[in-house]
Amino acid sequence: MNIVGVLIPLALAMGLAGLGTFFWAMRSGQFEDLDGAAQRILIEEDSDGEGAP
């Protein structure tokens, strides 16, 4: 029964840490451009100045 007294506060602390991390990510703009990365991977870049082989 003593372990429950440790696990419940630990679970609450981990949940609050995860929630805090989520709100930090929201405030820092991590979720601003959700489609940008998906579109950038489809764009073919010409890095060496010549066409693709």
UniProtKB/TrEMBL annotation:
It holds the Pfam family FixS. The keyword Plastid does not apply. Coiled coil: none annotated. Keywords: Membrane, Transmembrane, Transmembrane helix. The chain crosses the membrane at residues 6-25. This is Cbb3-type cytochrome oxidase assembly protein CcoS. It comes from Novosphingobium clariflavum.
